[in-house]
Write a structure and sequence with these properties.
Blueprint lengths: L2 H17 L2 H5 L2 E8 L11 E3 L1 H14 E14 L2 E12 L5 E13 L2 E9 L1 H8 L6
Parallel strand pairs: 1-6
Antiparallel strand pairs: 1-2, 3-4, 4-5, 5-6
């Protein structure tokens, strides 16, 4: 597929996520998708996953743990089978009521019209801090 077609697949994925169509998003993934978020202490959905079913569980865990306040895709850059998406988000952690904001970069691999790999880069310290319970005085 062309870089333009790969970019459109990635953009459709973000549109599905933002509209709450998680099944539509999952349908864009290969059966054996590799999903890599950084490890973050006490963040229940952090780390690696393999396969569409585990990624589906990721989205369920994300919805249980956080509420999206803002999710903005700012730029998409494609070269070959790689598509890099740059954006910004603000989340509220349900267990602590704290919010965190961060810029992010998602590196996608697209093969035969399917998303086969995601690697996220973000401010992990901001997320970890938001998951920490407030200290008693």
């Amino acid at each position: 597929m062309s870089e333009q077609e790969n970019t459109k697949v990635v953009q459709r994925g973000y549109e599905s996520f933002k509209s709450g169509d998680i099944q539509g998003l999952l349908d864009l993934f290969s059966e054996d998708i590799q999903w890599h978020l950084p490890k973050m202490e006490n963040v229940p959905f952090a780390g690696k996953r393999q396969g569409r079913e585990q990624v589906k569980q990721f989205f369920a865990s994300l919805a249980d743990a956080q509420e999206v306040k803002q999710f903005e895709l700012r730029e998409v850059i494609a070269q070959g089978d790689k598509v890099v998406a740059l954006g910004h988000y603000i989340w509220r952690v349900k267990s602590t009521g704290r919010e965190f904001a961060a810029d992010w970069a998602h590196v996608w691999t697209v093969r035969d019209g399917k998303l086969t790999r995601l690697h996220e880069y973000t401010d992990t310290a901001a997320a970890v801090s938001a998951y920490q319970k407030a200290q008693s005085a």
